[in-house]
From TrEMBL:
NHL repeats lie at residues 433-470, 484-514, 539-570. PANTHER family: PEPTIDYL-GLYCINE ALPHA-AMIDATING MONOOXYGENASE. This is NHL repeat containing protein. The keyword Signal applies. It comes from Adineta steineri. The lineage of its organism: Eukaryota, Metazoa, Spiralia, Gnathifera, Rotifera. Keywords: Glycoprotein, Repeat, Signal. CDD domains: NHL. InterPro entries: 6-blade_b-propeller_TolB-like, NHL_repeat.
């Protein structure tokens, strides 16, 4: 109000027509009755007489007191909540959110590269910008992070973050408002993590060791930029231009390279939860099979291996049905992706397949066709034998694309370069059957880490062995003091997985439990199971393969129960 401190005013309707307002008296800044003299910047910042009825509380009700507001402690899901995905009832990493006066919800659906609007009480949203895949065309967005909605004019201004632009959408027409602008970047430091080691819930990210720091310190970034587009670091001080950081990159001729800051942003590479001492619910959920032993599509018969892809589809080596099956997320039955034509040695047949590797990008599966003693590749129903006459049980592939095969007949693990299927190179065992540190006895499953160390379930020796690259003998990292059910023992170990913290997860088959061991510790701990052989939700019967999804949930091939059990992680 004119004549008062600038901090004092009157609450009124904002949008009267300026020419209808009478200027205040120029000397005393006074007005006729039923009006009040106020400053009005929208009307050339002139002191104007404002009608009293325009400041009435019936027109402009006061706000509630917002100091120390409280909220109910149990939230209600109003958009998404149907798992990560791109369907209209799903979201994937939502970022900015805005609620309009009609309680409609506008969302920057980050990893779906779109802006969606969920009408009040709707069960799904509708795309109002983007949604055409990531990219820099005018009709595309790339990791949008925030938005401003002006409903009166039907336009949206979007922070199109990865395209480094601010773009306006107006009824499906686009206009770039600001080019080449960066947005706030938050990156994650990874310590005590190997080069390219796991550091994010996004499997496309890994740890890059920074130049000038201890090799155990790095930054978590997107793994797969094109090498020739990266600029070498300054040769003297290992420095880089602004918005880049100097990192080691072995995949690019091991040169120190300037890595774009936006490639290490936490929205692209979200940090993992602390995986030390994770716990899981003790009652599993059957997500495949569980309908008795059989060969129908809703049944399994002795599953030995399980793998969960990024869309939570489940791939299973359905051992005694001589097939590989895929169960789509939340499906009630599977579909055959390899075999399923009875046991036999024809190219279209499998015989007790025990393990497999899935490459979804190239649509192939490599299978340990155990009883046919061959490693075979299936590519869109076309088959090729990669390795003949081998007692294959377990398979693994390292980050360089080398294929590892555990040979239960020769009691060894060999490594092959893809496309060069000669005799291979022995990387574990190979000194006859035995229990010495340079021997194995019926190796089953295995895991290869970032350093090409091989962890082998040494089945008949009731231990897990670790063979470092080029080592002449292994070290015992779990079990190894005879078969038994104590915490320092294993009983015919099968599936094995090692996380980036060095925690070793083992399917302790005949103890009907999953164990976690730390290298150097004398005993492990029970993760799930361990309640005796049985069919109850807290029991297992001869667990074989195991796998984790991106959220940390644990999946187990419950062999003699003919089912896949999911144990949900406790966050």
């Amino acid at each position: 109000m004119v004549g008062t401190n600038n901090d004092v005013g009157v609450c009124g309707f904002l949008w009267p027509t300026c020419y209808r307002l009478v200027p205040c008296n120029s000397s005393g800044k006074s007005c006729q009755s039923n009006t009040i003299c106020v400053r009005h910047p929208e009307c050339d910042d002139r002191p104007l007489c404002y009608p009293i009825e325009m400041t009435d509380e019936t027109m402009c009700p006061p706000m509630q007191n917002k100091i120390n507001l409280k909220w109910k402690q149990n939230g209600i899901t109003v958009a998404g909540g149907n798992g990560q995905g791109h369907k209209l009832n799903q979201l994937h990493g939502p970022f900015g959110v805005f609620i309009d006066e009609n309680k409609n919800i506008f969302i920057a659906d980050n990893y779906n590269h779109r802006i969606v609007e969920w009408k009040y009480n709707a069960k799904e949203g509708e795309i109002i910008a983007g949604g055409n895949g990531n990219g820099n065309r005018m009709s595309q967005l790339y990791l949008p992070s925030d938005l401003i909605v002006v409903q009166q004019n039907h336009w949206i201004i979007i922070a199109d973050r990865w395209n480094q632009r601010v773009i306006q959408w107006l009824n499906q027409k686009q206009q770039i408002l600001i080019h080449n602008i960066g947005f706030q970047i938050e990156s994650q430091i990874c310590e005590k993590t190997p080069q390219y080691g796991e550091c994010s819930t996004n499997s496309a990210c890994g740890c890059f060791h920074m130049v000038g720091t201890n090799n155990d310190v790095g930054v978590c970034g997107f793994l797969w930029p094109t090498c020739y587009r990266l600029v070498p670091c300054n040769s003297s001080g290992k420095s880089c231009q602004s918005n880049t950081i100097c990192v080691r990159h072995p995949e690019c001729d091991d040169r120190p390279l300037c890595y774009p800051i936006e490639m290490i942003d936490e929205t692209m590479c979200p940090p993992m939860q602390n995986k030390i001492n994770l716990k899981w619910k003790q009652n599993g959920i059957t997500v495949a099979g569980g309908n008795g032993q059989g060969h129908k599509l809703n049944q399994l018969h002795g599953p030995s291996r399980v793998f969960i892809d990024e869309n939570k589809n489940i791939f299973i080596a359905d051992n005694y049905n001589h097939r590989i099956v895929e169960w789509k997320y939340n499906a009630t039955e599977g579909q055959i992706t390899a075999g399923g034509n009875g046991n036999g040695n024809q190219m279209s047949q499998l015989y007790l397949p025990s393990d497999f590797i899935v490459d979804q990008q190239n649509h192939w599966i490599i299978i340990a066709d155990r009883w046919n003693q061959r490693v075979i590749q299936w590519l869109n129903q076309k088959q090729q034998i990669l390795i003949h006459n081998i007692g294959c049980h377990g398979l693994a592939m390292d980050k360089y694309g080398f294929l590892y095969v555990a040979d239960w007949k020769k009691h060894e693990v060999r490594r092959w370069k893809m496309g060069e299927y000669n005799e291979g190179i022995v990387v574990a065992g190979g000194n006859g059957k035995g229990n010495k540190l340079n021997q194995l006895s019926n190796p089953s499953f295995m895991f290869v880490d970032e350093d090409q160390s091989v962890y082998v379930s040494d089945n008949n020796n009731h231990r897990v062995m670790k063979w470092r690259k080029d080592a002449k003998e292994g070290i015992v990292v779990a079990g190894g003091i005879g078969q038994g059910g104590n915490l320092n023992q294993l009983y015919y170990p099968e599936g094995v997985i090692v996380d980036n913290l060095g925690q070793i997860y083992v399917a302790d088959s005949m103890n009907h439990r999953i164990m976690r061991w730390y290298e150097g510790k004398e005993e492990g701990e029970i993760v799930v199971g361990g309640n005796g052989q049985g069919y109850q939700s807290n029991q297992l019967y001869g667990p074989a393969g195991l796998s984790f999804d991106e959220e940390g949930n644990l999946y187990i091939a419950d062999h003699f129960n003919h089912r896949i059990q999911k144990f949900e992680v406790i966050l």
